[in-house]
Amino acid sequence: MGVEQFSQEVRGSGGILATSTQGTVETDNYAHGDGFDFDGTAYPYTLNPAATIQELVLTKSGNIDMEVTTTGGDTFTVPLAGNVGAFDKWEMDIVTFRDPSGTASPIAGGWAGE
Hints:
Layout: E1 3-5, E2 8-10, E3 32-38, E4 45-47, E5 53-60, E6 65-70, E7 75-79, E8 85-87, E9 92-98, E10 107-113
Antiparallel strand pairs: 1-2, 3-10, 4-9, 5-8, 5-10, 6-7, 6-9
């Protein structure tokens, strides 16, 4: 049985799909992940798993900075300013949370990667 896709029937039988896409195709299915909940008493906190972080979700944060180092070697800082969020546009090698203002704010969330 086929599925309608772009007004054309797409059929499959478990074979190989050939595409003209170059680079990587993300599936949003990741084999690794973990949660974290830091109480704010021992900044900086670092996430540096053996896996590449593909998605990072923050469920609790204060006025702190998130420093991201990508797998390509770029390092940049994202001020969180007490907000939560989801980040999935970078392949993250290392994420470090810093508290430049000394607020001792807790931070929590989770990550998924491969």
